[in-house]
Amino acid sequence: MPVTPAPAERLQRYAQLAVRVGANVQPGQEVFLRADLEHAPIAEAIAEEAYRAGAFRVTVEFQDARVRRSALEHAPLEALTSAPEWMLARLRELDEAGAALISLTGNADPHAFDGLPAERVSAVPLNLAQESRRVTLGGRVTWTILAAPNPGWAGAVFGEPDVERLWAAVGVAMRLDEDDVVAAWREQHRKLSGRAGALTALGLDAVRYRGEGTDLTVGLVPGCVWTGGGLTRDDGLTYMPNLPTEEVFTSPDRSRADGTIRLTRPLVMPRAGAVVEGLVVEFAGGRIVDVTADSGVDLVRAELDTDEGARSLGEVSLVDGSSRVRAAGVVFHDTLFDENAGCHVAWGQAFPFAVAGGMDKSSEQLAALGLNTSSVHTDVVVGGPGVDVDGILPDGGVVPIIVDDRWAPEFA
Amino acid sequence: MPVTPAPAERLQRYAQLAVRVGANVQPGQEVFLRADLEHAPIAEAIAEEAYRAGAFRVTVEFQDARVRRSALEHAPLEALTSAPEWMLARLRELDEAGAALISLTGNADPHAFDGLPAERVSAVPLNLAQESRRVTLGGRVTWTILAAPNPGWAGAVFGEPDVERLWAAVGVAMRLDEDDVVAAWREQHRKLSGRAGALTALGLDAVRYRGEGTDLTVGLVPGCVWTGGGLTRDDGLTYMPNLPTEEVFTSPDRSRADGTIRLTRPLVMPRAGAVVEGLVVEFAGGRIVDVTADSGVDLVRAELDTDEGARSLGEVSLVDGSSRVRAAGVVFHDTLFDENAGCHVAWGQAFPFAVAGGMDKSSEQLAALGLNTSSVHTDVVVGGPGVDVDGILPDGGVVPIIVDDRWAPEFA
Questions:
Q1: Which SS3 state, helix, strand or coil, does residue B294 take?
Q2: How far is A50 from chain B (nearest CA, A)?
């Protein structure tokens, strides 16, 4: 195991990572940072680092889960499902300014909304969600999401608020043990984007995941684009929307998935904070037709009934055994980390950038190309030792991509 | 001394006071709450109470002094002296919606900006300050400022972060010992606004403060309006902009002040966190012509040199010995409390509502009527045992207003 850096040093490296790699803050840029109250010390370090990088202004918006609970309990539904106009204006202004948007996750209280009606807890301001989607996909801003260790999150992971132990695991996953964390992540970006380019160039028709209890073939759409590492703003500035990231991924044809997967990691249902163990999912003709599990299967079934698209795949993703998240050796109870522990698929919403020019296409156009639409997106890990992934060419030829949990040499 | 209520009870009463009396939140109203991170538990209690009062939505904006310090240290001056457009849009939207605005003070770290250049620390976004002034004086919103006890503030007051001791003092000053705190403050509003009305009706030409070391006569402008207790929105809804409040006050003729005052309480210079003891101020022809003190006189002299209006009075105010702030028996290091310990005057900016129709007049029109203009406004307490205040009528007749630290019977 690498040596964990001292608290001040790791916080500094974390802030550098957020600012210099994740959002790639440039001199004169506006920075907007969303954090929970419990993330304050980390938000402060990021704000300081952003100013050091030359930010014009750093606005930090703190969320308070207790205030949110009061709203969920008392506010009229209309107040929960629509944002005020100034909030939309703020997003538009940040977009026009080409701002850097940084969001901190790391749920400090998974039980904050216990006992409240599910339809109120899941209420979102649709006008804001739509505008936010437009801005993050619009190619003018840079944005990144990363998770800030805190006692509550540590409690969910370890059963006790051992934040030092969580920092140690997060430090491994986020390469905070590297003296030059920025260079380490630039190298990771180079490696993942290289793999993504190679896969896109292959023009695969399908991918097949095989392992103990798993044999699933998923069809891809013609001209499918794989993504890995970072994204690029219209003006060429690269950034990394998720930190950490170990994956190369795309969205498949929602009508072509056949076979079975047996999860190699527990699935944490984010809203309920509940853990699903031993999940087995069966697909036929692109749809999930059966699920079984050792525990928590009802939560999965309820989610699959959310809407028409919930039972079809929105993502196929490739991660090998060199993953730093895998090396950290814990279930993080945070998808940002957990999906990066191994190869995975996700049912639900697809990514518009999985087809060339997809950012400029309407939802209807993307659906016509075969991409899935849903209000859910749940990643489930099937990768690990003994797992192979093959690419299948339009002529039926087979290209080994991951062989026994390692990228095949031509992609390494 | 009254019995201090238990922590949960006093927090509940404090929140009721903020919501039901201060901002007077109505069903369906938008509420905007500004707080420091250190005020979070109190902000949460106020948000909950506002929703219970029927608020449509409560938006809480948290300020972080460490993030502010980073900005003061690194940001271009332009970013410190102008606010982004969406912030102005937010204020306009709150104004149009007739929102309730609640601000929490109670400085958790008087040393947060130590060592930074004064001109950066005092930089304010002028566009926002102007819009904020327009909105708070515009008659469409209700607003209130109150102070939230926290360990840092307790440290400034007592030399140790004894927040329980601070809560006890705040509880006395804010009448949290009253079982029906809302009724107690409505009664206080009735009493203070009655006194203000009686003083306005008198049509005084001047007031004269007399006590040990103090004999100051201050001229008033024709048609001067006294204010006490609360303000009234254009639609008739009353609210209390400052909590606690014990004063009845107006703004004088800036060219007529002659005599001397000897402060009866120490003056805490807010920015420096420094205490000025034994301050004596001499006035001639409306202007401060000399100051002496046992300690800290340089800070006062520097402030008096800020601008042309800093040496003239912007406020004369009447408070008697029944003041709950006086009863609390501590120097709060917060003007919101300390000015309410006794009769006081303030040098610097005047209140536009000190003349009839003043809210609709320009700064030039207000100045032409005799009101003062300055970027500073510093309250200094001269009241206490043995102090008398007389009103002087245009014909030279004298009306005793405060006699030996008590309101004269016709004003009680």
A1: coil
A2: 9
Outline where B64-161 has alpha helix (H): 65-74, 77-81, 85-96, 118-121, 126-136, 151-158
Give me the residue from A52, A67, A85 closest to B93, CB to CB.
A85
How far separated are the first and last CA of chain A, in Å rounded? 23
DSSP code per residue over A250-305: E---TT-EEEEEE-SSPEEETTTTEEEBS-EEEEETTEEEEEE-SB-HHHHHHHHT
* Minimal Cβ distance to A79: which of B56, B67, B70: B56
Rounded Cα gap, residues B284 and B127, in angstroms: 36
Range list of H helices, B242-373: 297-304, 324-328, 335-338, 363-368
> Is B64 in the A-facing interface, judged by CB distances under 8 Å?
yes
Contacts of B77 in chain A (CB under 8 A): none
- H or E element that contains B320: none
Let me know: does A366 contact A352? Beta carbons within 8 Å. Answer: yes
Domains of chain A: which residue ranges? 7-173, 181-411
Tell me which residue in A30, A44, A70 faces B48 most closely, judged by beta carbons: A70
* Distance in Å, alpha carbon of A360 to nearest chain B alpha carbon: 27
Dig out the tokens for A387 from the structure: 């797992």
Contact at CB, B86 and A90, closer than 8 angstroms = yes
Q: What is the pLDDT of residues B89-106, one digit of tens each?
A: 999 999 999 999 999 999
Contact predicate B18/B142, CB 8 Å: no
Quote the DSSP letter at residue A242: B
- B238 has a pLDDT exceeding 60: yes
Which DSSP category does A59 fall into? E
Q: How far apart are CA A402 and CA A320, in angstroms?
A: 7
pLDDT tens column, A30-54: 999 999 999 999 999 999 999 999 9
- The tokens describing A327, both together, are 């090396």
Cβ of A75 under 8 Å from any chain B Cβ?
A: yes
Nearest Cα neighbor of A202 from A248, A259, A257 is: A248
- Residues in B touching A37 (Cβ below 8 Å): 37, 40, 62
Is 3.40.1830.10 the CATH number for B7-173?
yes
